Amino acid sequence: MKPHTAIEKQIVALSESLAPITPEMHSWAEQTIFLKWGVLSRGKFHCLDCGNSWKPESEKQSVKFTKCTACKGKLKMHGCNQVHFKEIEYSTVVTCLSNFQIVRIICSTKQMKKNCLPAYSHTEVMQHWINPKGEVRTMAISTNVFSHAYDAWQYYSPLEIRPKDFQNSPKYRINPYRVYPRLKMLPVLKRNGFKTAFYDLAPQVLLSSLLKDAIAETLLKTGQISWLRYYLKSADQQIMRNWQAVKICLKRNYTVSDFGIWEDYMELLRWFKKDITSALLVCPVDLHLEHDKLVERKQQLQRKKYLKQMRAEIEKAQNLYVEEKKQFFGLCFSEAGITISVLENVSEFMEEGDSLKHCVFTNEYFKKKDSLLFSARIDNKPIETIEVSLSKMEVAQCRGLKNNNSKHHKIILSLMKRNLYQISSRLKKEKKEKS
Q: Which domain of life is it from (predicted)?
């Protein structure tokens, strides 16, 4: 995309004057962001980091980790017997120039082969330019539009300015494995509480939030890192709605065991018109127990008093739900006897909530425009309900009976994540048809 506005032209000009990524930075990345790998082949262990090979102590020895006898590195063993291996990781250099805070994302590749030293390559794939108001504009190289992977970079393409809505792309939220320790920061960020740590948050997300969001600044300055992580990673920003209750929790040093359940609990308190400024209600001793009590009580009230009205509302809600989510109907995938399919009727939300005793219906998840709900079933019996964020294209939550994980939780999550591309392709198709 060619720069059109004055700010876009300024960023492109400044980008050309940026110092290149130095060999020292590349060397740091090679030593810190990659794992050390090994492989068992033809009765020998092979270190893919130094090229050493040796015989195991026992013929039946099969381990996930081992120690190289030459370089003494702890090796993670590849599960497959092949010739070539490749690992891709991200690192970041944080610097500043002309009143912009800049986050430079480098994609590094490690090519490995038995009995050979690894070969490395490094490409700067994105630059996030953040002004003192927290507004972000990104320069990035192109990606392969025919790939299911969102970060299938075309390494030969140049860095180009991207539109403002690039922040809605999953590429924008790429979180690097390591940040280069020599940081150059704007003074305003130090004033707003930033020191040196990023707390497993994408640097561009954290730094832009600290410049424009008083809530993020408050959470960082008060040391509430778990709240900060949840706040910046959640899609619907419910902490803003519950800010008074959050401040009560912070004041009482109350530890929230499950942020999603706590926010649902706040919605239930509102539904029952309870005082959400009461510390006794906001900070329950057993969060899950109190949440489940309110869910059950709400379900009973809905059935006793408003059964006819509920049916009428379901019919109205169904029409809206079909209009918003019909492009995803029919999505279904299965593995190991588990079938995951889209909830296509609002009445299914009620059945799902009744079976698993959670609040997918009582808290009206069918009205969430950014969410797509799936039911994971075995022999047509629901075992977990999955919520997918359409804007981030990731699993927001996956909950079984009484919001606990079922014994199939890992399989369900893996199957769901491997099929997110199907949702993405249908979403892209819908956008094309509308345009």
A: Bacteria
